[in-house]
Write a structure and sequence with these properties.
- The chain has 184 residues and is an all-alpha fold.
- The protein contains seven helices and no strands.
- Helices cover 77% and strands 0% of the residues.
- The longest helix has 41 residues.
- It is globular and about 60 Å long.
- The chain has three domains: 49 residues; 83 residues, no CATH class; 37 residues.
Length: 184
């Protein structure tokens, strides 16, 4: 839920602007179908072989398969973690972030220089590194539930404000093309 829903809600408006209102929904649907198909294949392989992802790679291709799966998992997790740390740091201290807007730094709040996020990245890492060393994830069950509840509340608030904004101003398609500028 946190990985797909939370970041998706925050990134999709900009994705529609960059990709366009025809290209982006098609891409989202194809991505969803491909993700569901691949997840179904993994479940079928797991039902037949059992074990973890590296175990399935070993059973399919031997030791090279296991090593390849482990490398891909590390790269995937590294990418997710890097993206989340950057996202959090830029939302806290970057241009348009929480700290500049609360403190009244109008240049930063309205999209000025993005220097403060580089201060928040090491702070984020200082919090995350000890947390990832916890071996039993069940310890965080309550905080995961709290995070899911906060995501649900945030989705309700965003949809409510978006609905009010659309009700007051109508659907504004200014600057959004069928196929975004990235493709033309």
């Amino acid at each position: 839920m946190k990985g797909f829903v939370a970041t998706g809600v925050l990134y999709i408006p900009n994705d529609f602007k960059a990709g366009g209102y025809i290209f982006t929904p098609i891409t989202l649907i194809v991505s969803c179908a491909l993700t569901l198909y691949c997840a179904n294949l993994l479940l079928q392989v797991h039902a037949k072989t059992g074990g973890s992802f590296p175990d399935m790679g070993f059973k399919a291709y031997g030791k090279p398969g296991k090593i390849f799966v482990e490398i891909v998992l590390v790269c995937s997790q590294f990418g997710f973690c890097t993206a989340y740390v950057y996202f959090i740091a830029s939302q806290i201290g970057g241009a348009g972030g929480v700290i500049p807007c609360i403190t009244g730094d109008n240049d930063m709040c309205e999209g000025g220089l993005e220097l403060n996020k580089w201060i928040w990245m090491p702070i984020s890492m200082a919090i995350y590194v000890p947390l990832v060393m916890v071996r039993r994830i069940e310890v965080f069950a309550v905080t995961h539930l709290f995070g899911d509840i906060m995501i649900l509340i945030t989705l309700i608030v965003i949809c409510s404000y978006a609905g009010i904004d659309i009700g007051n101003k109508g659907i504004m398609m200014d600057g959004i093309k069928p196929i975004g500028d990235a493709w033309t």
